Amino acid sequence: MFQSIKELQAAWKSDARIDITDLATESLRTPSLHSKYLDEYVDAKKMVAKAQTEIDILSGKKMRYWRGEMSPEECDELGWKQWQYNKIALSQQDAMLAADEDVAKLRGRLTYWKLYSEAAESILSAVQKREFSITNALKFILYSNGAQV
Questions:
Q1: Mean pLDDT, rounded, of the chain
Q2: How far apart are CA 16 and CA 24, in angstroms?
Q3: Residues 6+ apart with CB under 8 A from 132
Q4: Strand, coil or helix: what is 132?
């Protein structure tokens, strides 16, 4: 996997070029490009699922914490102080989760991986359309040289 969305974009910028002087080789590159960017897309979707799971688990722990249901040992293990306030009402839980810094960090990571997977999906779609571009380029060359297309 690339280290960032920028690296993914830079790789695609390079890979997207079609050498008009060697369309046969370019056509043969398409399956390997598809494989490369399919791997990126699948890995990114896994990271989306992992980030969502982490949010769900942390949200559950936070709810138990705010309801005063966590033992002192559990709080210590998580590095949290024992909840000393009133239990949070069900109507307040969504607002508390939205304002929680730990959950917000995970949501930021989820957003990043969603953007990464969308970028990889878009690239994958372009790779799938690559053969159409190569075929059209070949037809144009043939037509330009007087062949019936």
A1: 94
A2: 15
A3: none
A4: helix
